[in-house]
């Protein structure tokens, strides 16, 4: 049994590591809180129920946005965003500046008379160049009504019997079957890097002291965390951390040290923006 479980953990590690590391915003969920874009990372059970919500918040400086009141406000604005259908994602659209109607793509310093017509320029491109132009995309925001979050909202509304955001957030923060966390990040050396990770309750956002985030070098982040003491809690934490780091454009690999059930997960993440 022990051997089978360890094998399962290693398989999951391989599965996580094989995911695309340079993910953009397309398909991810966001809302706005006090003008700041907040990334929603939620985990869904096989029955379609939300089991974990993690909000990713960028802080100007360490400790500046980590008070309980500030973290609670994130969840209040999340409830408002679900209620008002203000959750959004990004979609990729084909884009080439030279194909914009009002942009002739005239090279700088060349007079119009000396510029070859765009259609003639385009006809002379090689197939490879043509593919490069056609495949060029950009991400644009797009409204998204997320089913699992809407279901969670409706269940809270039914239980509370009131549209009061304060009462709904109180109920959400008191739910034992849904993990509520906040990952705080900061721009360091031009890269967004994690600085703290806390778990929400009714009266505080408790820093998970067993989750240790270390900056190994300018492009590598190491995260260690418990694995095996609480199967569901530990599994959700690991998936949450992995998905957050993937969203931050890090490629992560996972290894385990120690012996069951006192394993320690070691997540090593390398920055890969492309």
Reading the helices and strands in chain order gives HEEEHEHHEHHEEEEEHEE
Spatial strand sequence of the major β-sheet: 1-2-3-6-7-8
Give me the Rg, rounded. Answer: 23 Å
Question: Strand share of the residues?
Answer: 25-35%
Which structural category do the helix and sheet elements fall into?
Answer: alpha+beta
In helices, the fraction of residues equals: 25-40%
Task: Give start-end ranges of low-pLDDT stretches.
Answer: 1-22, 107-128, 130-134
| Biggest pleated sheet | 6 strands, mixed
The first-to-last residue Cα distance is: 40 Å
Question: What is the β-strand count?
Answer: 12
Shape: globular
> How many distinct helices?
7
Q: Provide mean pLDDT, rounded.
A: 80
Give a structural overview:
Helix content is 32%, strand content 33%. The protein is an alpha+beta fold. The strands form three sheets. The chain has a six-stranded mixed sheet with strand order 1-2-3-6-7-8. α2 crosses α6 and α5 packs across α6 (165-174).
Brief descriptors of the model:
32% helix; 6-stranded mixed sheet; alpha+beta; 274 residues
């Amino acid at each position: 049994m022990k051997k089978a479980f360890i094998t399962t953990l290693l398989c999951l590690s391989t599965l996580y590591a094989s995911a695309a590391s340079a993910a953009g915003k397309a398909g991810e969920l966001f809302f706005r809180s006090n003008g700041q874009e907040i990334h929603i990372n939620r985990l869904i059970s096989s029955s379609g129920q939300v089991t974990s919500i993690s909000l990713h918040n960028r802080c100007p400086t360490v400790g500046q946005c980590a008070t309980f009141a500030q973290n609670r406000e994130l969840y209040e604005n999340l409830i408002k965003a679900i209620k008002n259908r203000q959750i959004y994602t990004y979609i990729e659209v084909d884009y080439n500046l030279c194909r914009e109607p009002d942009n002739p793509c005239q090279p700088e310093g060349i007079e119009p008379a000396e510029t070859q017509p765009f259609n003639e320029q385009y006809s002379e491109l090689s197939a490879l160049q043509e593919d490069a132009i056609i495949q060029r995309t950009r991400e644009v925001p797009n409204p998204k009504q997320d089913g699992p979050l809407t279901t969670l909202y409706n269940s809270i509304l039914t239980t509370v019997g009131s549209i009061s955001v304060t009462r709904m957030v109180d109920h959400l923060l008191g739910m034992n079957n849904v993990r509520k966390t906040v990952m705080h990040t900061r721009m360091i050396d031009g890269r967004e890097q994690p600085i703290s990770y806390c778990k929400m309750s009714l009266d505080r956002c408790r820093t998970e002291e067993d989750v240790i985030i270390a900056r190994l070098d300018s492009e590598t982040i190491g995260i260690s965390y418990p694995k095996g003491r609480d199967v569901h809690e530990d599994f959700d934490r690991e998936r949450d951390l992995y998905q957050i780091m993937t969203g931050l454009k890090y490629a992560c690999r996972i290894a385990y040290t120690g012996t069951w059930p006192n394993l320690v997960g070691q997540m090593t993440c390398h920055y890969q923006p492309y």
